[in-house]
Design a protein that fits this description.
Elements: E1 20-27, H1 33-41, H2 45-53, E2 57-63, E3 68-75, H3 78-86, H4 89-98, E4 113-115, H5 121-127
Antiparallel strand pairs: 1-3, 1-4, 2-3
Length: 136
């Protein structure tokens, strides 16, 4: 009998609010990586403001050469932050521009696969009663 690893699925609607750090994956078309990188080198100022104003903080995107995209952000309520973005006009324009970069059809921000955090060094240091930064 072999064990199989379950395939992650997008976060279902109605789930308790996801707070703090959120990590997700998506898949960019390998033949469009250079264009995707260029688009993210100069994100529209109004898009940056909308992300900030709807609760996206410390937001990072990482892209592997095969198109695997990993996003990490902090937020007080991921569902509310995502809904806030969905309600903005600039997000509709941005998603229309980005749609062709992704393997899956549909709106790119709706195809994120949310990953469960299983380890965070600073959290475990605090829980163990240890200093988060080394003592000098």
């Amino acid at each position: 009998m072999t064990e199989s690893t379950p395939t992650p699925t997008p976060m279902p609607a109605g789930r308790a609010p996801r707070r703090g750090r959120v990590c997700f994956t998506s898949q960019v078309r390998p033949d469009r990586l250079a264009e995707y990188r260029a688009a993210h080198a100069a994100v529209w100022p109004e898009m940056l403001e909308a992300l900030r104003d709807t609760g996206w903080r410390d937001y990072h995107l990482y892209l592997r050469d095969d198109g695997l995209l990993v996003g990490i952000l902090e937020t007080d309520d991921y569902d509310a932050a995502q809904a806030g973005m969905a309600a903005t006009e600039v997000n509709a324009r941005w998603q229309a521009e980005m749609g062709g970069f992704f393997v899956d059809d549909g709106s790119p921000d709706e195809g994120f696969v949310i990953l469960d955090e299983v380890f965070h060094l600073e959290d475990q240091l605090r829980t163990a009663g240890l200093a988060v930064t080394p003592q000098t």
